[in-house]
Amino acid sequence: PYTGPTAAEILTKRKEFLSPSMFYFYEKPVNVVHGKMQYLFDENGRRYLDAFGGIATVSCGHCHPDVVKAIVNQTETLQHSTVLYLNHAITDFAEALASKLPSDLKVVFFTNSGTEANELAMMMARLYTGCHDIVSLRNAYHGNASGTMGATAQCNWKFNVVQSGVHHAINPDPYRGLFGSDGEKYAKDVEDLIQFGTSGQVAAFMSEAIQGVGGIVELASGYLPAVYSSIRKAGGLCIADEVQSGFGRTGSHFWGFENQGVVPDIVTMAKGIGNGIPVGAVVTTPKIAEVLTRRSYFNTFGGNPVCTAAGHAVLRVIERENLQENAHVVGSYLKERLNALKDKHEIIGDVRGRGLMLGVELVTDRESKTPAKVEILQVMDQMKEMGVLIGKGGFYGNVFRITPPLCFSLQDADFLVDVMDYAMAKL
Ligand code: PMP
Fold first, then answer.
1. ipTM of the shown complex
2. Residue with the nearest Cα to atom 8 of ligand 1?
């Protein structure tokens, strides 16, 4: 049994010693003391089904034994920066990662986070093209350093500091967007942006395949092929931010961008790649990678053997346990059940996403799509009381984000929907 500090004690210390900007879910936040696969346990040994751990980095399941073993073994053998000396952990993982990417995408730069990966990708695109202008999407989240905060486009995540050179295109959001699900019309906006907002030449276009923080917004079909073509005509590179949608999460494909049939020039990843260990990566072509030879480029912990051993173990688990296939099967079933729930509860305005990256948007009125900001908190709290932890996001904070570890089962899907059904009925 757990004998550590209580939730109340931790909360008091957190208020005194940690950043005042930190926030938490639930009126009474959960003190998680232990995790096992798709479950989390609180201080009283109470079990919760974790339907959000995937976004907070856990792809194969909390404390997956194979990943833990790889981390422990490597920690006992060597923990050091692998920049200056040779070690096989980094090369083995880089090779395995490259084998998962299409085309000539095979040069890997390791980082410690998604922000760092996107910062590096943006810098490389600028160096490669000699241009500064980058196009990203409204409602995107790409990180919290100056470049990536510039590319992020939701005012609640942006501080008022210099973030130069990013243009934010109209979001190809099939539910709330200006042009419905007409991907080509949204793509035309990017063409206009290039012509009227830049010199006609750009460094890059960067986007998620499914916006995560933005509330599981799947880009309108046909959008990426058209935009990639306009960007390339303007001399720019196409960057896919796979921090949330990568590693089999969308089920039908290993990478989110594959759902639109495009091949990016640079792919960035983090979160689920380490199953809880801080590791990120940028993968690009040998030709683009050359730009970093112009100066020294150094990242102390990027690609250290403990993190790369963990990442490599994650890839092996995803393959051995068919987790991508599981995301497809369980995700499709879950989406079907959520759609049936939409027929029952007026408050559900939209059900969307792919695989185990699903969103349920709550509105008080389906016609005006007024965000149900208060109701979502009530449902979320009630679900927690019944043993299900679920995520929340979207610009208005009214979208449930369902992104569980990829080992989520059909029974888990049933339990989640039954609990959500009950909580909504109680509203
Ligand atoms: N890109 C996307 C799509 C993200 O969701 C996030 C984090 N929410 C980031 C980048 C930044 O990653 P990190 O928090 O590891 O810096």
1. 0.99
2. 213
- Residue owning the nearest CA to atom 12 of ligand 1: 114
Statement: 65-320 belongs to CATH 3.40.640.10: yes
Domain 7-60+322-425 top-level CATH class:
alpha beta
Domain locations in the chain? 7-60+322-425, 65-320
Tell me: the pLDDT tens digits for 145-176?
A: 999 999 999 999 999 998 999 999 999 999 99
Position 82 scores a pLDDT of: 80
Q: Distance from the CA of 206 to the center of ligand 1, in angstroms? A: 13
pTM of the complete model: 0.98
Q: Is 243 in the pocket of ligand 1 (CB under 6 A)?
A: yes
SS (H, E, C) the chain: CCCCCCHHHHHHHHHHHCCCCCCCCCCCCCCEEEEEECEEEECCCCEEEECCCCCCCCCCCECCHHHHHHHHHHHHHCCCCCCCCCCHHHHHHHHHHHCCCCCCCCEEEEECCHHHHHHHHHHHHHHHHCCCCEEEECCCCCCCCHHHHHHCCCHHHCCCCCCCCEEEECCCCCCCCCCCCCHHHHHHHHHHHHHHHCCCCCCEEEEECEECCCCCEECCCCHHHHHHHHHHHCCCEEEEECCCCCCCCCCCCCCHHHHHCCCCCEEEECHHHHCCCCCEEEEECHHHHHHHHCCCCCCCCCCCHHHHHHHHHHHHHHHHCCHHHHHHHHHHHHHHHHHHHHHHCCCEEEEEEECCEEEEEEEEECCCCEECHHHHHHHHHHHHHCCEECEEECCCCCEEEECCCCCCCHHHHHHHHHHHHHHHHCC
118 lines ligand 1 (CB under 6 A): yes
Cβ 147 under 6 angstroms from ligand 1 = no
The pLDDT tens digits of the residues spanning 262-275 come to: 999 999 999 999 99
